[in-house]
Model the fold of this input.
Amino acid sequence: QVQPVESGGGLVQPGGSLRLSCAASRSAFSIYDTAWHRQAPGKERESVATITRGGTTIYADSVKGRFTISRDNAKNTVYLQMNSLKPEDTAVYYCYVPPRWGQGTQVFVSS
Done:
C-alpha cells in the first residue's frame, strides 16, 4: 500500500476552520476503513474520526458536531473538515489507511 499523504494543517484562531486532506490509493479506500487520529504534546494518539468502506462515519465525543470526515473516491482523497476549532484541538493529525500511517500534519489553534 502507498503511504497516505496528509495536507492542510496550519495556524488558525479559535473558532476558525481548517480542512485536512489525505491522499491514498483508491483500492485502499474500497477495502479499508479510513481514520483520522491526532496526538497532542505529551498525550497519547487518539482517534478523531473514521469513515468505513460503506460510508458510515464515527466521531470522538470531543469533536462531534464540529468535525466532518468525508471521502471523494474520484480523487482518492479523504477529508477532515474542522470547524469551531478550539485550542485543545492543537495536535499533529495523522491519516490511517491500513496498514499505513501518514507522516502527519500540524494544526495550531491559538490567538
User: Anything to note?
Assistant: The chain has a mean pLDDT of 94.
